[in-house]
Amino acid sequence: MAWSVTIAGTTYTQANVEGNAYADESSGLPAILRSVAEMGASISGVYATSSTGFFAEVGQVTLTTHQHADDVFLPVGTLVRAASASDLTVFVVGTVSSFVGHALVIDATIASTGGVAADWVIGHPFMVVRAIQLDPAPMLTADLNANEYSILNAANLQSYAVTLGAFYALGL
C-alpha cells in the first residue's frame, strides 16, 4: 500500500525509501531526518539567532541570521519574537514576511519601549523569554564556535546559552 507523509512542509512518499532511494541525501532518509530536526526546532520554540544591531521598534525589521533559511523551518506568516538575549526588556514581536538565505524579515507589530541590541534570539513569542531567564552562565570574552554556529566577540556567554542549549537538545 502506497503512503505519503508531510514533515516540516516537505512531502515524502514510499518512493523516498524504496530500494536504494533511502540513501539519497536530498530526498531519502537523510532528508527525512533533516525535516524531523526542523520540526523539533520549531516545537522547541527557538528558531534562529542574529547579531544584527538595531533599535527595537514597530515596522519592518531585517536580521542577518546565523542559520541559513534552508536549515530552519520558519515559513512566511509565522509569529515570532526577537528578544535581546542580554536584556529581556528589548524585543519585537511580529510575523515573518520573508526568510531567504540568511536574511530574515519580520513585520514587527509590537515592540518594547526602545533599546538597541545585537544579540537576538528569534523564536516562539512565549518560549524565548522563559528559556533565557533560566540560564546563568559564566563570562566569555573571546570568539566561540559550537557545532558550526559561531558567536563572534561574545561578551557574555549567558546571552547565547539558550541557543546553544537548544541546538544541543535537538542534536544539531
What do you see in this structure?
The chain is an alpha+beta fold and 172 residues long. It has 2 domains: 4-43; 45-170, no CATH class. Helices cover 21% and strands 34% of the residues. The chain is built from 3 helices and 12 strands, in the order ββαββββββββαββα. The strands form 4 sheets. It has a 6-stranded antiparallel β-sheet. The radius of gyration is 17 Å and the shape is elongated. The relative contact order is 0.17. Residues 128-144 and 153-172 have low confidence and may be disordered.
Summed up, what is this model?
With 172 residues, the protein is an alpha+beta fold.
Query: What is the strand content?
Result: 25-35%
Tell me the total number of β-strands.
Answer: 12
The helical percent reads 10-25%
Mean pLDDT: 74
> Helix/strand/pairing class, anyone?
alpha+beta
The succession of helices and strands, N to C, reads EEHEEEEEEEEHEEH
Strand order, main sheet: write it out.
3-10-6-7-8-5
How would you sum up the major sheet? Answer: 6 strands, antiparallel
Instruction: Write down the domain tally.
Output: 2
Give me the Rg, rounded: 17 Å
Summary tags:
21% helix, 172 residues, six-stranded antiparallel β-sheet, two-stranded antiparallel ribbon
